[in-house]
Structure formats: C-alpha cells, structure tokens
Amino acid sequence: MFTFPELSTGPRQLPLLEVDEELRFFSSNAATQYLFPVINLTENGQCQQLQEWEATRLLPTVHSLISNKTVAGDLKQLLKSQLQELNTLLAKNKYMLGEKLSAADITIWSTVYPLYYNSMFKEEFLNENKNLVRWFEELAAAKAFKEAVTEWGGSSIGPFAPVSVLGLPQVLNISTPVSSPDEGAQEGPTAEEIQQAGDNWLNGLQKLLPPLKEEKKLLPVKGRKNILITSALPYVNNVPHLGNIIGCVLSADIFARYCRICGYNTLYICGTDEYGTATETKALEEKLTPKQICDKYYQIHNDVYRWFNIGFDYFGRTSTPEQTKITQEMFLHLNDNGFISTQNVEQLLCKNCDRFLADRFVEGICPHPGCGYDSARGDQCDKCGKLVTATDLAQPRCKLCGQTPVLATSEQMFLELGQLEPPLRTWFSTAEVGWAPAARSVARAWLRDGLRARCITRDLKWGVPVPLEKYKEKVFYVWFDAPLGYMSITQALTKQYESWWRPNKEYDVKLYQFMAKDNVPFHAIMFPATLMGVNKGHILVDHLYATVILVFTQSRISFLEYLNYEEGKFSKSRGVGVFGTDAQDTGIPADVWRFYLASIRPETSDSSFSWVELGTRNNSELLNNLGNFCHRSLSFCANTFKGVVPEPQLTASDHELIALINREIKSYVNHMEKGRLREALRHVLSISRLGNQHMQAQQPWVLLKGNEEERLRGSTAIGLCCQIATLLCTLLAPYMPDTCLKLATQLNIDREVMRINPENPTFHRYLPPGHVIGKPEPLFAKLEPTRLEELKKKYAGTQAERENRENGESKTENTGGATVAALEAAIAKQAEKVRQLKASTKDKTIWQPEVDQLLKLKAQLAAVAKTAPPAGATANTGDTVQSLERAIAEQGDKVRKLKASTKDKSAWTPEVNVLLDLKKRLAALQVNAK
C-alpha cells in the first residue's frame, strides 16, 4: 500500500508514489498498476479492464460529485448505478475479482474512500449497497490500509482536491477518459504558436484548400489522395445490433465523412454477406428460401443503416453475378498457381436428408463440463458461450429432420496458407504500422502459431459454386468468398472495380478497413494471403481498424468475450441486447445515438452500453456544453447585431485562445488519420469547452453595455464565438451529420465552407466580414431519467421475453380496451410499413413476410376483441342491449369495408367471427330479458 506524503507545493491533495527522483505517480490507479506489474491471473485480463473502468468511468463521476456544490440529478443517478454494479460484483466474491486481493481493489477502495467518510454521501450512495460497504470495511480494517491512511492524514476528501499538485483538475469532465497526470501539466501556447495562430487566422479557407471538385465517376483520380473504405460485411440473417453498427459501419462512415471534408477522393462501400450456413439456418427457422431470407434482411439492414445516416457510396450484397464471377476467377488463379490442395475431412452425415451437415445444422448436448445444454450448436453453445466441435456433441441430431447423423468422409479443397506465409510475414512487418493495436495483436498471434492449410469449400447448396466439374456440388466457404465481396460490390457500382483494387502505379490508392476484432483473421491473414496467391497486383490493406467487442450491459463492468445485457449474455441469435430497430423506436435522434456510440467506441479495451450514461452524455456534453455554446453565440449575434457576424478585432489573449484551439484541431486530425475516432471526438468537445470558457470570461452581455472600447471587446467575443461555432460544425459533421446540417443552416454556410486542411490543421476565419447568419434554434433536447429507466426496463432480456412481458402487462390493465388499442396501433404501424415496402419494390419476397405479420396482428386483435366487453359496457354492469347493438353496427361496418377492399378471405374472416359472436351475445341477452 503506498502512502500520501506532504507535497512541497501544498497540502496533501493527491496520492503520490515516489519511486525515485525521475519517477513519480500522482494517480492511485497508475501507482497500483506499477506496483502490480503484469501479474494478472484473472481470466481475460479482467483486472486491467476493471482498472480502466475505474479511471474512465467511476473516478470522474466521484470527482465531479465531491468538487461541485450543486450536482445534477443525472450525475447522481450515474454514480448510484456505478456503485450498484460494484455491489453486484461483490455479491459473488470476497474481493472485486474473486477470493484474492487485486490492484483493482486498492484502486477502487481509494476512489470510494471520500464517499464512505462523508456521512451525507454515505447515506445517499453507499448504505443501500451492503456488499460494497462490507468489502470497504474489511479492507479498511487491514493493517496495511490503516497505516497508509494514518500516514496520509485520513482526510475525508480522499485522493481528491479541487486543484491537483499539477495545477490542473485531476479529472476535467465525466465523459472524457482520464489522461495520466504523470504526463505533466499542459503548458500555455508558445510565442511561435501564437504567431502562427494570427497568421493562419488571416489566410482564409481558400488559401488553405483548393475548391471541392466533384468527380463524375467514383474512380481513382491522378494527383489526389484516393481513399477506399470498407466495413466488414454484416451477416444478413438478423437485425443489426449496436455492436455491429459502431464496430463496423458507423466507424467507417465517420472516417469516410472526415476524408471528404479533407478533400480526399473517397469511396465507401459495404453490403450484406448473404452466403453460408447462417443464412440457410435462418431460412429453415422462418420457412423461407435462402434468397427470400436475404431479400428480407437486406432491406432491414438497409433501412437501419439509412436511419443511422450511414453514408455509403454503395450498399450492395454478395448474392450477385459479379460475386460469382470474381470469386470463381480468383479460385482458378489460386489453383493454377499451385496454392489449392484437397484433403479428406470427417463430417457428420445425415442419411435421412442425404447431405453432409455444416456445424450449424447439428444440435446436441454441450460437451463442456458443468453445462449440459441440450440445444448446443455444432459451432458454439449459446448457454455457456464456449466454442464447440460438432463431432464432440453428445446425442447429436440433424437440425433439418431430427435424425441422428453418422461420421463420414468428404473430400474438400484447401488454401495452402503455409506456402503463402513467407511473403505474408514480409508484408505484415511493414503494413502493421498503420493498424489498430487490436488488429496487430490478433494477426501476430496467428503468425506466431504458424499458418496451416485452411478449408475453402463446404457441402452446401447456398453459395458460390466451385467451378470444377468434380466439385460442382460444393460451394465456397463463406470466409473465402465474403472478403471478395468488396470487389464485387465495387464492380456493381463502378463497372471498373480493378481501377480501385488493381490501380496503376500512378494512382495513389489507400485501403482502409473497419471491423470488429473477431473479423481480423480473415482480413489480416486469409484475404491478403489469397490476393498474394492470385498474384495479379491487387492492393492490400494499408490501415486495418478493429474494435474490441462492444459490451451491452446493465452492469457496466464486463470483460472480453462476455457480452452481457442485464442478466444474460449478449446474443444476436437469441435477441439479447439493443438492436438497430430498437434504437429507432426509442424516439432518441439518430445523431445522439451516433455521438454516444462514438464516444464509447471500444478502441483499447471493452466498452459498455448504459442507458444512464447515454442520458448523461446527451444532457451534459451535447445539451449543456456544445448545444449551449452554439445557441448562445448565434442568439447574441442575431439579437444584438441583427444576424451580422461582427468582425473580430483580435487581441493577444484572443490569439492565445486560437493557439489552444489549434492544438485541439491538430490532435483531432492526428487521431482521425489513425482511426482513433473516440479520441478525436474528445478534442471537438474540448474546443466547445474553450469556447464556453471564453464567453464566460469575456461576458459580452456586460461589455456591450459599456464604453466604446468595451463594446468592441464584446462584439469581438461574439464574432469569435460564431467562428468557433462554425469550426465545431465542421469537425462534428462526421459524427452528427443531421445536427451539423441544422447548425450549418443557422450559420448560413454551405459544404464548401465546412472543410479542414489535414496538412495544416488550424483555426481560420471561416465566416467573411459582413456574413449574415440564419435563425438560431436549440440543437438538442434533454433526455429525462424517467424515460431512460423506462427504456432500460423495456429492452431487458431476450426479444421473446420482451414480447411476453408486454403482453402480460397489457392483460393486467383494468379494461380490455387497452389491449385492443395496443393491437390497433401495432396494426396501423405494420400496415404503413407494408404500404411503404409495396411502394418501393415489386419484389413480393420482400414485402410478403410483412403482410403475413399484419395478418397475424389482425387475428390477435380478433381474438382479444372476442373476449373483451363491447363498447359502452362496464365491468360491473356487463352487456347491455344498447352497447351490443352499437358494437354490432360498428363491427358490421368494419366487415363491409374489409370485404370491399380485399378478396383475401383470411383478412376479413376474423372480423366476421367477431361480428357473429356479438350477435350471439345480443340474442342471449334478449332471451334472458324475456
């Protein structure tokens, strides 16, 4: 346990570990990690991840609480949620990570300390968390902890103070990850920076960047930087969830939008991955053909991505003639070059179906000890989450017919990766410099273990056929053909895909690929090896950005490979988590989702989804920071200067501010160019905070009432703040395109203005003298904690559990009318969806499933209406002649309209049955009355 000695610069304000004169730690987190070097026996590196959670989540929240006299309710709610998570963790263990003390315990204990020893905080935040209090008191009673606290002085503020020994707050903002205080305090701008700030301010945009040039065709251009961007092709057998969105398509979209404001010639493509076992399995579940499944889910994916404002240049699919042609050509080149071999493989054969079974077509009892789940798949067990080999399943059965399969031999084709390993290693040694750490580590692990031949064919029907007579009944394994989908999708758009993928030497084309960590082996090893084996001059990936797995969890402390949402592990197949369609239904704008997901983008470790944090980020960073600054700046301009932006008469202090902003812009560009999108976003928010601080320091509302000199300073402050708002509009555009379009309208600027120069990223005068802005309006709305709590409850559990819960709640309503009303609303919504689909396509396979769903809803309504009291009756008085006659008249009119609108008997038969039932009840009532 390290101690807290007196510091020469003041009282005990921060813990300090002094190793020697050259090495000091001012952070308990950093110090404990130093004292416990790399000794982490916990599974999946949980200790390091828990410490990062403490540094970037818990510590900033606690610091904000104890350093502010007035604390917003959402901040308190966030802290309560975090402490409840710790309490849940300690319900199972003596310490944070098991039965042994870890560095995480020491770090978190020092963070919780000021809450425990402040009676008000303890009452409000700790007392209800019994496990956490028990843990804290046990550690506090330990001899080492007692000695350390005694030497430190035992102050109730713990390791916090309003100002640290470094002269800066230890934590600047709850949404900004903690930077290490060991890096030292940031110094003010140098004389050179101030001079450059003044020079660049006067240059203007036109001198910094050439005018935007629109290309007629999306092809590489000589003399320009050509950027080819792909995001991993999502499987088309389910609705995309938020992990898919931030890990792949949203990250790539943010980067593509950044490239465009830099003036790069940019092509961003993606599409659905449609072949393989997963598609066939889903088709069996929904009793459709694989083609029908692909058509259905392609539209769902397309709709979700459009709602999220994902700006693909083209969103294609792999079940196309272009895909077949390119995949078969690539295979034949590999075969001709000697990189294809054949091997006999033992597989499960279903004699009843007369077919070899792919892993997902086999189910049985999980072989892992302590599990025993009886519906484990041949590739993975959904209960324990562990990988499974189909032949290891106990009591295996064919998913198609339920019969027991037998082991048999099938001849398959293999790509000889071992032969391609030497050139792959040579290429990787230089290429990895531009890759994300997660991508490098995965690729290195594969290369460290050595490469072996890998099967590229399957005994399936749905896929690209192998173009050899002997193997014509086989298709290519999806891992082999899916990456080639980037080329076929490019071909479907441009008809000249080789211009991008096999460019002439005089064209500068760089390939950027975005994906989740589990896709790295295919893009870092198999795909490049395939292209090397083809040997036709295809470009290889220059920059590979992989995120670690995004964790959806109510208890936000979660670890790699464990995807938790409330009490169950995240599962796309079981519908656990938050999906794209869910995000649309919340009513929260797409831009807020984009901002929040980008701000928690997992770049160095797992990240977690939290409804409470979503509200906190929206209310603090967007509403109170960014939105407040822009709206105040433009409102002052509109109300005081009739919308004409005052020309700033810059002073030395203004140049210092611009120099500080320039630092943030340079950091923004540096992080963006390296694919660190979350880090780049931090610098945008820092610029907004600088703007807010400048406005508060200048107080233009006071200066504008003073003498001539003061009024000039006041108008300069407003003019400079309007220019900063324009800069923010530009830098934030990749993250929040809709919001920035609104802000651009208020600023009265066009796309030509919203640009930055990556070669000279500086703040310049965006708005010319005399520029007139539009009408200022608020950009964001508050998310109420009560609404977020409702959403958290609504989306807990699996999709099936949600539906059961909603049905159960509707049945407990006081009247039957609530159930009828809910179904009628669902029918109206579904009918509108059907109308839009029919209007957008003539392909019946796309809209027929939605029509079937509509009919199901109508049948449910009929069943509910059958048991519900008629309109006008009450639970106490029962049926009346008048109420039944009125209900019969209304139902009869409904039946007539349905029969007139459609000849489909299934659509109106349920309504006829309701009408007949009402008539029977009326007849019975009349008989009883006599």
Automatic annotation (TrEMBL):
<keyword id="KW-0436">Ligase</keyword>
<dbReference type="InterPro" id="IPR001412">
    <property type="entry name" value="aa-tRNA-synth_I_CS"/>
</dbReference>
<dbReference type="InterPro" id="IPR036282">
    <property type="entry name" value="Glutathione-S-Trfase_C_sf"/>
</dbReference>
<dbReference type="GO" id="GO:0004825">
    <property type="term" value="F:methionine-tRNA ligase activity"/>
</dbReference>
<dbReference type="InterPro" id="IPR015413">
    <property type="entry name" value="Methionyl/Leucyl_tRNA_Synth"/>
</dbReference>
<dbReference type="InterPro" id="IPR000738">
    <property type="entry name" value="WHEP-TRS_dom"/>
</dbReference>
<dbReference type="Pfam" id="PF19303">
    <property type="entry name" value="Anticodon_3"/>
</dbReference>
<dbReference type="InterPro" id="IPR029038">
    <property type="entry name" value="MetRS_Zn"/>
</dbReference>
<feature type="compositionally biased region" description="Basic and acidic residues">
    <location>
        <begin position="800"/>
        <end position="812"/>
    </location>
</feature>
<dbReference type="Pfam" id="PF00458">
    <property type="entry name" value="WHEP-TRS"/>
</dbReference>
<protein>
    <recommendedName>
        <fullName>Methionine--tRNA ligase, cytoplasmic</fullName>
        <ecNumber>6.1.1.10</ecNumber>
    </recommendedName>
</protein>
<feature type="domain" description="WHEP-TRS">
    <location>
        <begin position="819"/>
        <end position="875"/>
    </location>
</feature>
<dbReference type="InterPro" id="IPR053836">
    <property type="entry name" value="Arc1-like_N"/>
</dbReference>
<dbReference type="InterPro" id="IPR009080">
    <property type="entry name" value="tRNAsynth_Ia_anticodon-bd"/>
</dbReference>
<dbReference type="InterPro" id="IPR009068">
    <property type="entry name" value="uS15_NS1_RNA-bd_sf"/>
</dbReference>
<dbReference type="GO" id="GO:0005829">
    <property type="term" value="C:cytosol"/>
</dbReference>
<dbReference type="GO" id="GO:0006431">
    <property type="term" value="P:methionyl-tRNA aminoacylation"/>
</dbReference>
<dbReference type="GO" id="GO:0017101">
    <property type="term" value="C:aminoacyl-tRNA synthetase multienzyme complex"/>
</dbReference>
<dbReference type="InterPro" id="IPR041872">
    <property type="entry name" value="Anticodon_Met"/>
</dbReference>
<keyword id="KW-0963">Cytoplasm</keyword>
<dbReference type="GO" id="GO:0005524">
    <property type="term" value="F:ATP binding"/>
</dbReference>
<keyword id="KW-0030">Aminoacyl-tRNA synthetase</keyword>
<keyword id="KW-0547">Nucleotide-binding</keyword>
<dbReference type="InterPro" id="IPR033911">
    <property type="entry name" value="MetRS_core"/>
</dbReference>
<dbReference type="GO" id="GO:0003723">
    <property type="term" value="F:RNA binding"/>
</dbReference>
<comment type="similarity">
    <text>Belongs to the class-I aminoacyl-tRNA synthetase family.</text>
</comment>
<dbReference type="InterPro" id="IPR023458">
    <property type="entry name" value="Met-tRNA_ligase_1"/>
</dbReference>
<feature type="domain" description="WHEP-TRS">
    <location>
        <begin position="880"/>
        <end position="930"/>
    </location>
</feature>
<keyword id="KW-0067">ATP-binding</keyword>
<dbReference type="InterPro" id="IPR014758">
    <property type="entry name" value="Met-tRNA_synth"/>
</dbReference>
<dbReference type="InterPro" id="IPR014729">
    <property type="entry name" value="Rossmann-like_a/b/a_fold"/>
</dbReference>
<keyword id="KW-0648">Protein biosynthesis</keyword>
<keyword id="KW-0694">RNA-binding</keyword>
<feature type="region of interest" description="Disordered">
    <location>
        <begin position="795"/>
        <end position="816"/>
    </location>
</feature>
<dbReference type="Pfam" id="PF09334">
    <property type="entry name" value="tRNA-synt_1g"/>
</dbReference>
<dbReference type="Pfam" id="PF21972">
    <property type="entry name" value="Arc1p_N_like"/>
</dbReference>
<feature type="domain" description="GST C-terminal">
    <location>
        <begin position="40"/>
        <end position="163"/>
    </location>
</feature>
<dbReference type="InterPro" id="IPR010987">
    <property type="entry name" value="Glutathione-S-Trfase_C-like"/>
</dbReference>
